[in-house]
Amino acid sequence: MDTIILKARGKINLTLDVVGKRDNGYHDLRMIMQTINLHDTITITKTKTEGIRINNNLAWLPKDDKNITYKAAAKFLEESNIKAGIYIDIFKRIPVAAGLAGGSSDAAAVLVGLNKLFGTHYSKRQLMKMGVEIGADVPFCILRGTALAEGIGEVLTPLPSLPPMHILLAKPNISVSTASVYKALNIAEIEKHPETDDYVEAIKRQDIDYMTTHMGNVLEDVTIKMHPQIEEIKQDMIRMGALGSMMSGSGPTVFGIFPSKYEATLAAEYFKNKCGLREVHVTSTFCKAKREGKRRHERKRYKHKHEDK
Ligand SMILES: C[C@](O)(CO)[C@H](O)COP(=O)(O)OP(=O)(O)OC[C@H]1O[C@@H](n2ccc(N)nc2=O)[C@H](O)[C@@H]1O
Ligand SMILES: Nc1ncnc2c1ncn2[C@@H]1O[C@H](COP(=O)(O)OP(=O)(O)OP(=O)(O)O)[C@@H](O)[C@H]1O
């Protein structure tokens, strides 16, 4: 195998709490993360000439060692002591610098893809360990699904899959640097912390009503102070029928959970046409259990087919 194509899915934070600050500036978190189906497509090809080459479909996105996928590939080659040539093509759909872990997910896909391409058989845990050195969200992007994330985001406890939910993403026409949001946060000034443990229980009993009405993100106040239009988008989403709406990660993307794809699509038209937002997507929550069930089924079918011969 010389080429592999992977889906690098984004994420939303259903809750995000900051519980401490480390000497190196990083923050201790407790947050519930959820993979969404909106994805970038990553194609990795082995090449004859040694080195890492990158291409992507956005004119302004780095194509050199500034691209996070370069760092992921370099880390993998260093860890595995492999000397090889790699070409990475990225087709971006996930908005950049948006709070949706677009870059982190690309990096995660590169680690997973190279592991398959070179047959190195690293475990998921080993890949996640490599991943955290590239970015705090990378381990979750390797794990995927629904999870409680602690530490700086890398201590992950998988949670039961959520029932499929319709998600609308609306990004104001601005980009926000994650570092600047964490820098501006004053932990002592946090007014309301999300009830993370109660939220975990609600996920366990699949209580959608609780899940849509008890989301909370302590970074919201910080980013909204910088860009008040985030609050307007949140309120518009509720007015347009969202069961709940919140900023994802450090922002500025706002997501809404809608009762149907139809209502999410109507609201999307409003944000695109009436508010002039350029990056609006209707997507859904990624169900890991369903995906793994499908894979088991495919393996079984493959086995049957070959045993019949
Ligand atoms: C906001 C979230 O997306 C929520 O899921 C993540 O916490 C951010 O994860 P990320 O973008 O992968 O983070 P990194 O690329 O490792 O770090 C970006 C910047 O965010 C800050 N950062 C990140 C994670 C963390 N637990 N504490 C932090 O203070 C650091 O100052 C760092 O300079
Ligand atoms: N493959 C990539 N995809 C997206 N951004 C990249 C990539 N490589 C480098 N970057 C740089 O990383 C920064 C933002 O990354 P990213 O899109 O992961 O942020 P984010 O949406 O805020 O994610 P997170 O929720 O993890 O903070 C931008 O400055 C961008 O130029």
From TrEMBL:
This is 4-diphosphocytidyl-2-C-methyl-D-erythritol kinase. The active site is at 11, 137. Catalyzes the phosphorylation of the position 2 hydroxy group of 4-diphosphocytidyl-2C-methyl-D-erythritol. GO terms for molecular function: 4-(cytidine 5'-diphospho)-2-C-methyl-D-erythritol kinase activity; ATP binding. ATP binds at residues 95-105. Pathway: Isoprenoid biosynthesis; isopentenyl diphosphate biosynthesis via DXP pathway; isopentenyl diphosphate from 1-deoxy-D-xylulose 5-phosphate: step 3/6. Pfam families: GHMP_kinases_C, GHMP_kinases_N. InterPro entries: GHMP_kinase_C_dom, GHMP_kinase_C_sf, GHMP_kinase_N_dom, IspE, Ribosomal_Su5_D2-typ_SF, Ribsml_uS5_D2-typ_fold_subgr. Belongs to the GHMP kinase family. IspE subfamily. The gene is ispE. Its EC number is 2.7.1.148. It comes from Holtiella tumoricola.
